[in-house]
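MODEL INPUT / OUTPUT PAIR
PAIR INDEX: 1
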Amino acid sequence: MKKSLLCVALGAALVSNLGLATPASSAVTDNPYATAQELELMQGFPVPADKQVTKANALQTPPFNRWAYQHMRMFYPSAGIPAADKPVPLDKAIDSKFAASVKVANADGEMRSFDQFMTETWADAIVVIKGDKVIFEEYRNGMHSNQPHQMMSVTKSFGGLMAMMNIHDGRFSESQRVGDIVPELKSASAFGDATVGQVLDMTNSMDFREDYADPSSGIRTYGAVLGWTEKLQGVDYPTNLYAYLQTLQAQREHKHGDVFHYQTPKTDVVNWVNNRVTNQSFQEDMYNKLWSKLGTEGETYVLLDDNATLVAGGGLNATPANLARFATMMLNDGVFNGEQVVPKAIVEQLAAGGDRQAFANSPDASDNMPGNEWSYRAQWWVSHTPGYEAFTAIGIHGQWLYIDRERDVAIVKVSSAPESFTPRQERYDLNGLRAIVDYVSAN
């Protein structure tokens, strides 16, 4: 399945079309799974040119992303999300047999050890939760539990969750027209007469091409407006993200609600609705609703565009420890440390999923995520596969939050895979997550 994201445009356009990135081959070793340290990235004073991570190669150029995904705010503007006043550590009951017991089928169906699975999916960290306890954790490539990691489109799922919380609080409803909440979008037929629920579930109709090789395509224009890809000479670009969103129009072929289509600007509109009704930024809302109540600690931040505007489609950088706190809360019906952080009704809505027919009609349905077994709800991917029902937040290059309430298992996995997305890579990751669930639920 095509995981479209702003970050794809940034990396692919910069590398393939602008010629700004240092050639990846200059830092490649014979080991395709080499760590940043083994590659000698960013080592030395000065760092040799072929080992230098830069803004041009940080987002998607392998192998430089092996180092960059733990240091994103060194290259892009960012805003911090404060930690809670008092950290709340997660209980641990480490299963010493876990790593030796879990076996995973790769994309070819060959059984691999857990160690091989982690290596061959470029994993930087994994945390496995059973109930309210961490039963396994492992850190690679220089990661540790309190190291922020780029989460790509996992960011979308937090924005979607906060929208659901605002809806639950009565700030707006899913049936309201977006243009009635954000009047600036009334002239944008992709959003103005679409309902909040349709944009939230990405079933609103939008004419937006994600052709990274075409500098005039929607995704390239989007990146140029953000200041993250090159502007074409002679083109009059909108001056900021808000102005750009007002130019987007509906597709003639589809009506709102008919087809699920995963397109990043839709998340920016969800975020704009949230901002308008709360009068708070994404990072302020996330602190107030989630991070302040989850006993978080250390550093969390979001990336900004050149106008200091949050890019809601993929800018969150968070630590495995804080993501594990969040996952534990979602696994336990929204409760953490005795407090109802997220209403149980919202967790149940996410687990129930979205419109399966709209997903089946989608260009994003695939062999890995077939239309009759998956749906999309409030910026979360939902599996309805018997025995593997779960709702997941997914980001390119191997970022996963996997919540399986039926079997009481949650998994945080962060990675720095060389390619943004391939069906084989997705298949291997899904097999691994499900193999972990099988093992944990049986022991």
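PAIR INDEX: 2
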Amino acid sequence: MQCLSCGNIWKIGYDEFDTAKDRCPKCGSLKGVKPKIVFFYESAPLYKDMMKYFDLLSNPKSILVVIGTMGNVVPVADMIEGTPAKKILCNKEPSKFLPEDLFDKVYYESIESTITKIEDDISSWWES
């Protein structure tokens, strides 16, 4: 659980936790206690760190490999549109949130069956 008042994080294991009556063990707060997970529409803790790497895509020598995402939680398409970096998409199926024309290479198969192709793509781009 996580206390939104003091930031305390604690494990409850498989014990029940009643957000209406159970309190933070550190500060005693009753309001602002929630499971230590990211809910929809919340920013994940490392999103800010991740975002700074998208700035690197302004370099045409950069390469981005997007693996296993629908592109709706993290808006990858918005972040990469118009960038000159080389981009590879590897998903098991297409997603309406990830237009193929934004990528230089697109693979709709498992990463296990695609990894050698991706390695070859990256090698050929590094050499050019």
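PAIR 2 NOTE: DSSP finds three helices and five strands in the chain.
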